[in-house]
Every structure is written in structure tokens, then in C-alpha cells.
Amino acid sequence: MLTDKNAGNMAEAAISMPVVLLILVLTLNVSRAGYAAMAARNAANYGARVGAVAGTNARAYAESAAKASLAQSGVGGSGEFPVEVLLLGSGRETVVSVTVGWSTPTIMAGICTLFGEGCPAAFSGEARAVWRREGFRP
Predict the structure, then answer these.
(1) Which residue has the higher pLDDT, 136 or 40?
(2) How far apart are CA 94 and CA 41, in angstroms?
(3) Can you give the chain as a three-state secondary structure string?
(4) I need a labelling partner for 43 at 20 to 30 A (CA). Which of 59, 76, 115, 121 fits?
């Protein structure tokens, strides 16, 4: 029994497997948050660009384009990604500002309590894009 190599292999696996799984879960969690942030940034940029070239009703076009971009990315429902469109300035100096909030739940919240620290229930943030409207008279 003292010369059996299988027991050593099992002990190594029992020690290393939780660490490997923790790293895997952390990677998945951060990847989901990164993808949600990227999708929100792309939606804000696309919405602001569409709003900047729209001749009339720029706010509605910008909001619709941002929501369509979010729907195409497949990141979640519209409740998790609120869209806000502002037209700033007047005349030829009007800019379209689109802000898209994003939020994704964290998988690590339950695991963090085992280590004595709490994790946020969700990662969240917002993405903003601003485009200047050129050549249009309000």
C-alpha cells in the first residue's frame, strides 16, 4: 500500500480539481461581462451613428437602432440593457448621445461567500457614444 502510485494521483486530482473549476467559472463569468459590455458599446455606437444621419426624428431612429443591435447580439432582454438618447446642442452643432446600460448576473456570488467576502450579484456598467450631426438643419 505504501508503494501504490494510484493513491498519489487521486490525491493530486482531489487537490487540483477545485482550483481548476474555480478558474474555469471565473473565466466564464468575466467573459460574459466582457461580451455584455462590448455588445452595449457597439449598440451605443450604432445607435448614435444612425441618429446622427437621420434627417428627422433622430431620437427615435437612434433608440430603435441601438435596441436592434442589442437584439441581434443576443445578450439579453431590453430590461437588462436600458437605452437613453439625448440630442445636445442646437442648430448645426447638435450631437446625438446614446447611453446603453448593461448588466449580467455573476456566477461567483455564492462561491465568494465561502471565502468570507461577498461578490456583487451582477456586473453592470454603461456605454456611451456621441456623434455630431452634420449638414442638417433642425
Answers:
(1) 40
(2) 21
(3) CCCCHHHHHHHHHHHHHHHHHHHHHHHHHHHHHHHHHHHHHHHHHHHHHHHHHCCCCHHHHHHHHHHHHHHHHCCCCCCCCCEEEEEECCHHHCEEEEEEEEEEECCCHHHHHHHCCCCCCEEEEEEEEEEECCCCCC
(4) 121
CA nearest to 102, candidates 56, 37, 46, 53: 37
- Which strands sit side by side in the sheet containing 83-88, from one edge to the other? 83-88, 95-105, 122-132
What span, in angstroms and rounded, lies between the C-alpha atoms of 12 and 6?
10
* Res 106 pLDDT > 90: no
pLDDT at 67 over 50: yes
Let me know: does 63 contact 57? Beta carbons within 8 Å: no
Q: Dihedral of CA 69/71/76/78: which sign?
A: positive
Q: Which residue reads 438643419 in cell numbers?
A: 137
| Whether 127 contacts 41, CB under 8 Å | yes
- Whole-angstrom distance, CA of residue 82 vs CA of residue 2: 63
